[in-house]
Amino acid sequence: MSKSRFVFDKFAKLIEQGLVSYKDISVEIVNILKSKRDEIVFRMKLASKEEVEILNKRISNLEKKLNKIKKSKTSKKTKRAKKS
Asked: Is the pLDDT of residue 57 over 90?
């Protein structure tokens, strides 16, 4: 019950502050959920916040490299040998 109360309190604060537009509310909800996720990870002592951020950056860099490799492979066309 206290967890749902926390969420309702956050929504009430948002409405009180005048954040009415959908985009502002969605950004605030995402921020709230990210902070709660970080708290849970911290409580579980899986990894520090800095370690997680570093790993996320490394993963995104690897994904970019992988996408570049995939694009370069698909853009190369095979050449046919000429018959003599």
From this structure: yes
d(CA 68, CA 24): 34
Two structure tokens written together for 42: 């911290």
Burial of 17 (0-12, 13-18, 19+ CB in 10 A): exposed
- The DSSP H or E segment spanning 50 is helix 49-75
State how far the Cα of 22 lies from the Cα of 13, in Å rounded to an integer. Answer: 15
Sign of CA dihedral 33, 35, 41, 47: positive
**The pTM of the whole model exceeds 0.90:** no
Domain ranges for the chain, please list them.
2-71
Q: One-letter amino acid identity for 46?
A: L
